[in-house]
Amino acid sequence: NRARLIQELDAVSFAGQYDFCYLPSDFSTKQGNGTAFVNFSSPECAQHFFGLWDGSRRFCQQQGQVNAPLIVLKAKVQGLQANLRKWKASRVRRVKNKSLLPFMPAMNSAEAHFPAYKCSL
Predict the structure, then answer these.
(1) Strand ranges, E, within the chain
(2) Of residues 45, 72, 43, the one with CA closest to residue 57
């Protein structure tokens, strides 16, 4: 789930290095669908993430089950504002469960969950 992804990112030196994190999830199970979107603060940080995570099996073990290695790809949408525009226009705006929404750690805790209604884009 998203909380676990954020915990893992922060534990391996990426705390403060990303401004947007979204893990599309199945609403009934509240589990991720196998993809995640993380917007890093710099290309160097994204490259460092790629080197550490691509091909690794981190974040893949669930109750003794080992999944395929991670495949890290560059997203088509780059930058915080571009991600806000993309997700603001999508079905994600109808999601009521805050744990399933995009997360922006740099914002204070009251606004950290996708404050698209406050964005001036």
Answers:
(1) 18-22, 37-40, 61-62, 65-66
(2) 72
Q: Which residues pair with 37 in a beta bridge?
A: 22
> Closest Cα to residue 106, out of 4, 12, 19, 15?
19
Specify the pairing of strand 18-22 against strand 61-62.
unpaired
Reported as a single tens digit per residue, the pLDDT across 84-119 is 887 776 666 677 777 777 777 765 444 444 444 333
Q: Quick check: 67 and 57 in contact, CB under 8 A?
A: yes
Is residue 25 within 8 Å of 2, Cβ to Cβ? Answer: yes
Angle at 10 between CA 114 and CA 44, to 5 degrees: 90
- Quick: pLDDT tens for 30-87: 677 778 889 999 999 999 999 998 988 876 555 555 667 888 888 888 888 888 887 7
CA distances from 62 to 30, 69, 93 (A): 15, 13, 29
98 sits in the region (left: phi over 0; alpha: psi -120 to 50; else beta) called alpha
